[in-house]
Design a protein that fits this description.
By secondary structure, the chain is an alpha+beta fold. It is about 35% helix and about 15% strand. α3 crosses α6 and α5 packs across α6. The relative contact order is 0.16.
Length: about 150
């Protein structure tokens, strides 16, 4: 059975089994490799995407759950790194290995969509779903980048 959905504003369809994790459809089927496989259990956030505007662990979402929905990956957030959060990440020289970066940015974008002026505690809580393997993403760095990543008024 073909599943139809939208990815980064473009129509997509696949005949993959309905229990296939969305992550593998994105990476292997659609060749959008910005979304990463980290733990496969929804604990690290490397696979974070937005589904109908809300963040989701793509490793935990089955293909059957996204029929007719809209998926945004890091590539869809900004194909040329011009999104304010991507600019903030680069300005702060945050990337090291880069493995967690797309998930971190997608989570931060979700937070700022919900709350354009989050408090420190709200940032800490929201970003706690994302883990950095090499350690440069800490609470103060995430806070700085989330705040700097807010679009200008």
């Amino acid at each position: 059975m073909t599943v139809h959905f939208t990815v980064n504003g473009k129509p997509a369809a696949t005949d993959a089994p309905p229990t296939t994790p969305l992550l593998w459809v994105i990476r292997e089927g659609l060749k959008l490799t910005g979304t990463k496989f980290g733990c496969g259990t929804g604990l690290c956030g490397a696979c974070m995407v937005h589904i109908d505007g809300a963040r989701a662990f793509s490793c935990q979402i089955q293909l059957s759950e996204i029929a007719g929905k809209s998926v945004t990956t890091i590539e869809g957030l900004s194909p040329d790194s011009s999104h304010p959060l991507q600019k903030a990440w680069l300005a702060e020289q945050v990337p090291q290995c880069g493995y967690c970066q797309s998930g971190q940015i997608m989570s931060a974008a979700d937070l700022l969509k919900q709350n354009p002026k989050p408090t420190r505690d709200q940032i800490v809580e929201h970003m706690s779903t994302n883990i950095c393997r090499c350690g440069p993403i800490n609470v103060s760095c995430a806070r700085s980048n989330v705040r700097r990543g807010r679009p200008e008024p």
